[in-house]
Amino acid sequence: MDPTTTMKLEGYLKNTTELRDLLGIDSGYLELLRGRAQLFIDGGHTERALIMLEMLEELDRKDPVPSLIAADLLLREGRSDEAEAKIDRVLARSPNEPQALVARAELLIAIGELTSAAAILRQVIAGDPDGKTAAGRRALAVAARAHRQVGRG
């Protein structure tokens, strides 16, 4: 193996290089894979979508989106333990990732831990009270939906 490839492989093993870089996969190809995952989701092929999202997770471990989409799918399927594992991995890499925090709140709501979910949503909303980011808008929507659910219950 040439020295450059060896360095990239060592970087991958140390979490400093992504597999996409090691394999020479460009961002355009990753977009195609994301599109394929979305087609599977839209077509109701959850397991196929999860396989594609898992590939994307492995190719670029720094990108939280495939993991969070997979967590959402798993949660909808009633597989909260698997969803929680995906969210935990994202939060382990980036503890303040707003999208992952909102996903954690949705998981907590699904399992009935409303107080903990509310605290997380307040944290995310405090960082984006006007909902200018996707995570801020999602936090506001999740909070409103949870409020309606509690009001009915």
Write the layout of secondary structure elements.
Layout (H helix, E strand, L loop, with lengths): L2 H11 L5 H5 L3 H16 L3 H14 L5 H12 L3 H14 L4 H13 L3 H14 L6 H19 L1
Report on this model:
The structure is a single chain. This protein is an all-alpha fold. 77% of the residues lie in helices and 0% in strands. It is built from nine helices and no strands. The longest helix has 19 residues, at 134-152. The protein is globular, with a radius of gyration of 17 Å. The N and C termini lie far apart (63 Å).
Question: Which labels suit this protein?
Answer:
globular, 153 residues, single chain, mainly alpha
Low-confidence stretches: none
Number of helices: 9
Overall geometric form: globular
Structural class: mainly alpha
Biggest sheet features = none
Radius of gyration: 17 Å
**Strand segment count:** 0
Q: How much helix, percentage-wise, in residues?
A: over 70%
Topology as H/E string?
Answer: HHHHHHHHH
Portion in beta strands: under 5%
Mean of residue pLDDT? 91
In whole angstroms, how far apart are the ends? Answer: 63 Å
